[in-house]
Each structure stands twice: as C-alpha cells, then as structure tokens.
Specification:
The chain is 32% helix and 36% strand. It is of the alpha+beta class. The strands form two sheets. A six-stranded antiparallel sheet has the order 1-9-8-5-3-4. It has a three-stranded antiparallel sheet with strand order 2-6-7. Helix 2 runs antiparallel to helix 4. The longest helix is centred in the N-terminal third of the chain and has 29 residues.
Length: 177
Amino acid sequence: MNFYEEEKEVVINNEFDYSNIIPTIEHIGILVQYCEGVYNQLLKLIEEDEQKNEKLKIEYKNYKYSKSYSERFEVSIREKTYNNLYCKTYNSYISAANNGQLKEVNSLEINLDLDYKRGLGNNLKYHQNSFTIIFRPYEIKFARKSNFNEENMNQIENTINQILQQFEKANSIFCTK
C-alpha cells in the first residue's frame, strides 16, 4: 500500500463475533496490555511531532500525528451491582482483578481510540481509528471504525484479532462456531 492510498478517505466499519471464546482475566489482561502499549505509542508519536513542529511558522508545520483530543484508552467494567469501574492502565485492570472486582460482571468493554490529525499548516485531516471490544455473557464483539485505510491501523486490527483467537473456545447451545 502506498502513501497516496493511505491518504484517501474511506469508510471502514469492521465487526467480528467472538461469542464462543471464554474471557478469562488473564487473556483479557493480554489484550488490555497490548491496547495500552499501542495507545502509549500514539501519545509518544504525537509528543514527538509537536516538538518537531513547535518552533516552525504555521505554514511550515507538517504533522504526521497531531493531537485530536479524542484519543483514549479505557477499560469499563460494569458490575452486577451496577457499579461502574474505569481502568485507564493495565496496572489498574490487574489491581481490579486482584481486588475481586472482576467476578460476576455484567459487561467489560475495552475502548481504544487512536484518533489524530495529519497534514500541513492549518490544513489537517482528522483520522478516526476506534477499536472497541465488548465482553457480555454470550456476546463478545470486536469492532473497528476508521476513516482512512492505514497499514499501521490494519496491523492493530489484525493483532487484536490474533489475540482474541488465542482465547480458549467452547461451543454451547447459545453459540456454536
């Protein structure tokens, strides 16, 4: 894929059904750790790009990764008692697991938004890259929404799918694959 193809706006709205996997704390932890790492990588790229362009006049600024203020990484846990818990790091996820807060949950959702802006001067194009993994009893989905076909975002989607495929699987009367 060449650079021109990556800069062409498209609609990517992929959804994958993993309802037959068994979501254990350990396997979800691997997924959380990967997503946090990718998120921190983006933040580092944004910071480096900001420093590189800081002293330039606006017309000479060239951003590959400019802050969009919509990037985020969060693990939302909804307990059966309807308490909501939000983990912003892998360590806070592990802490919640160690404190028994991942027993009998209604749902767990991993949100990874890798949004940024790219372009010259004030002519920046918004790049949306949303990855959402939802774990509910008998319903486990992974969805990606993007507005550009970028090789690095395709690789993130592939890696998340590979991690999910490593989970143990069990066919049941509710889901057989």
